[in-house]
Sequence to fold (381 residues):
Amino acid sequence: MRKLWILFTQTVTVLLAAYFIVATLKPQWLDRRPRLASVVPILEAPADSRSDAVSGVSFRHAAQVASAAVVSISTSTAPQRHPQSADPWFRFFFGDQGNSTPQSGLGSGVVVSPEGYILTNNHVIEQADDIEVMLNDGRVVKASVIGTDPETDLAVLKVGLTGLTAIALGNSDELQVGDPVLAVGNPFGVGKTVTSGIVSALGRTQLGINTFENFIQTDAAINPGNSGGALVDVNGHLMGINTAIYSRSGGSMGIGFAIPTSTARSVMESIVQDGKVTRGWIGVEPRELSPELAQTFDLSGTSGVIITGVLQNGPAAVAGVRPGDLVTSVNGQAVSTVPQLLAEVAALKPGTPAELGVLRRGTMLSLTVVPARRAALRRRD
Fold:
């Protein structure tokens, strides 16, 4: 009996040892469950396909469409020298006056016509003596200035090429806060770059950037060199021209501003047709209607722009506008802020009569004013 027990224990020990060895080295021998692949066949997606979920949020198409029409702009300015620097006696006593190193700059632009018209910022090409444009295909060509508008910081260039890929101009008036947008340009000169974000705000004014302000605010990264580049929607349609950023460091902090296409289109058309932008002017000093002014002039509960000064013999004075009047509309367009009044008056055609809606001492009046031509902003030296 003792021998049988010893034989049994040895046999069990050998079997357990064999089990542990197999479980360690060949565990699949012990797995008798059916394979998933043998029950449910797995479908592999083609390498070049995209799921509906991925394609629904991808900006690939918009980036490709917009990038084809965005160009890089480089400028150079001849060194400034003193008028007497050629006189050897002047150089002997005063040295070589002035900067002898040419100044250069970088920016971006957008091809808006197959005929070679390019829209960019005025500050990108201002005072430049030489302008070169690098197209999307790598070609570098000289560009000439068709016209500039410092008051909106826009400029139109032209290159001597045709058949260029142009961007489609979208309707910026349909943008809503929260809409996704892309910024395309050449930041810091590193090359064509696309960044994404949303529309953070609309109608930004009184930023002290331009005379006429109606900016789209976005958190899409905009950096130095992006100026003049495109702000586009998810279809790659142009919604604005990237112009400025708010930054304490010089780089993007999530607050960028673009000139809406509605403004850029009208400025571009005027420049291409006339070489300049012509705006109306009536000669008034407007001010926002604060609660204090509303109480002073008994205008509580109303909206408009208070007139605090009228230029003597100016168009508004001739039309009968007086200090203390509240302008509520220009040619039927309601105005409630100074930027709105400025924009509506600027849109008037000089010499063509227009109607001003004016509230005076509780009485609504309709005054006919003949706007004059607004003097062009002087070029900065």
About this structure: Residues 172-274 form a domain with the Thrombin, subunit H fold (CATH 2.40.10.10). Residues 2-25 form the longest helix (24 residues). The longest strand covers residues 193-204.
